[in-house]
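ok posting inputs for the NAP job
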Amino acid sequence: MENLPNYLYIAASIFFIYGLKMLSKAETARKGNMVSAIGMLIAVVATLILAELDFKWILVGAVIGSAIGASAARLVKMTSMPEMVGLFNGFGGLASLLVGWAEYHQIAGGAESDLFKLIAIGATVLIGGITFSGSMIAYAKLAEKMDGKPILFKGQQILNVLLLLVMVSATIGFCMAPASAYPIFFGMVVVSMILGVLVTIPIGGADMPVVIALLNSYSGLAACAAGFVIMNNVLIVAGALVGASGLILTSIMCRAMNRSLANVMFAGVGATASGGGKTFTGEAKTVSTEDVYLMLEAASSVVFVPGYGMAVAQAQHAVKELGDLLEENGCEVNYCVHPVAGRMPGHMNVLLAEADVAYEQLVEPQDVNPTIPNVDVAVVIGANDVVNPSAREEGTALYGMPIIDVDKAKVCIVLKRSLKPGFAGVDNPLFFAQNTRMFLGDAKASITAVVGEFKS
Ligand code: NAP
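and the output
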């Protein structure tokens, strides 16, 4: 009986690992989420048993957290989910930092400690503080409360290294005389938060997918460190799993952008006023609903390429309806999702799954690109950076990122409201290409109008 919480923690960890594994495939992702949630329930029950049913404070926290979560779920729009995820990462880091603080408060009050615990507290403060303030910057950039351009200044990296050294020396001082180290502890909190801001501001808007994945990983590492502070096995395991899966996601995002992590973190790509690249002028050929209907009606293969604009317009259901009508018309329909499309990893996949698009119809850019010259119509729905051919040219914020080659399809129809550039601020020559037709307007209204033409 004494070991029951630990057995339950092992069971919870197994659920987490299986859940994570299932999350790696679209077909099993929903079940994976459920399996992980069951794991968390088991972990919570085990922790309550460990707390010897004295869970007054746990209850207070749970009530406040549930109230905030429930109102966020009602008040936050689907399009604001990415910045919400950014905030959640930050609060995860802050929660770990507070766990470290609470533990240190007891030590400062005379409670026993050992070197291992003190180092774990130092790590919790460092990683938790960086995660919190870095996530706040990521939130501000994603919510467009702050300019997405990288903020660079002379000696930035030297300052970062110096602050890191200050942090390490402070942790050593703190470990040597913990009982009287409250001023040092506060200094560590402040320096870690400054570091979080300084490492995030040089990263440009187009590189935010990497930052979000990395901050997610940091929030896991902070939780893992907090687990060592309070010696809670399941917190150590869950934190390590989040840390590791966040790192894997970071590497996937870097690969999707064909960039190294060091290049994303330190190069300040996109620091120029416009995101770099040429300015394109000329006449974009606009089309009407009827023109689009006629092109699609005659097509035998269509690839839909969704982007952030589909999320803004909430056009996924209309897109699926159009896809179904095209299939009924004998057309082969696929959906090609770029890994960094939208504003959070998996953003487009979530929307398409919500609209019940079959998993078999989701195709990877590397599979579509070689055959795209045979595609009759590529329909770009509110995507911009991920189909911008400027990514093939040096000197732009997008340079090197593999794109979906919609410009090589027989015809490309682009749905957006204007000719403005995308998130990275790089002008898009696709709009002026010979085989491109601009279908201007809100994506949902435009697609719904085409669906109406098909039905009539
Ligand atoms: P994007 O480059 O941000 O472009 C989205 C386009 O959607 C805009 O050009 C906008 O043009 C259009 N749009 C907005 N509302 C619309 C509406 N109601 N109807 C129709 N169109 C609408 O999108 P993307 O191609 O998906 O590229 C994603 C970008 O975000 C990349 O630069 C990526 O690095 C970055 N990012 C991604 C993540 C991630 O994790 N996936 C995170 C952060 C940042 P108009 O204003 O002319 O309509």
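notes: The chain is about 60% helix and 5% strand. The longest helix spans residues 81-108.
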